[in-house]
């Protein structure tokens, strides 16, 4: 009886140790598998003057991991960290992203970034990904000289991708204020047109409406702010400066079309 009692206790101990081993494997990884501890940061740099760009929270980046016979996505870093998946040892590519590449508008940036990493069995591999802005930006501005001769200005920027954005000195009817940054697709065409009321010869704000013909920027560049700046060298003329960053790349003399019927 004494020997039988010892055998039962030994068998129970084996079962107990077996259970602990499975639990430990679930936490630390089974043979041939490891984990990735991932960090992500946003690179907000633009080749431009100081601009306030939209910066997503780290936990809001989507994650996608691909490797040998493996592909899985998480809608956020937060969900990836909560799962902390086991991965078979080998080489993987980690891609992170934020925003929709097809969406244009205010505070609609698209960030992307990727890196390669080797997963080592029974280890947690550290990996870091930097995501950069993958779309372009645009805005409309007027100079002080322009505002000296024109008022009640309103402009429309259209992208070949289908976006249409209004800018106005008086932000009514959903128009954006002049200088507001709009995110647009990289590699798209932009056009700008507008109107303003010309100062009358008497100096009273009752002059005729002036229409500015549509002008075109053929292709937007990634991580770049394209600025349309309206200027008026004198009372009888108007120009459009197209700037990439702070550099004027083209100056267009604008024919002034008076709409004499549009009076206050």
Characterization of this structure:
The protein is α+β, with helices and mostly antiparallel strands. Helix content is 15%, strand content 46%. It has helices at 2-28, 77-83, 144-149; strands spanning 33-43, 62-67, 70-74, 87-88, 90-98, 111-119, 124-133, 136-142, 150-159, 164-168, 176-177, 182-184, 190-198, 209-217, 225-231, 238-244, 247-254, 257-259. The longest helix has 27 residues, at 2-28. The radius of gyration is 30 Å and the shape is elongated. The chain starts with a helix and ends in a 5-residue tail after the last strand.
Shape: elongated
Beta fraction of the residues? Answer: over 45%
Total count of strands: 18
Q: Strand order across the biggest sheet? A: 3-2-5-6-7-1-4
Averaged pLDDT: 83
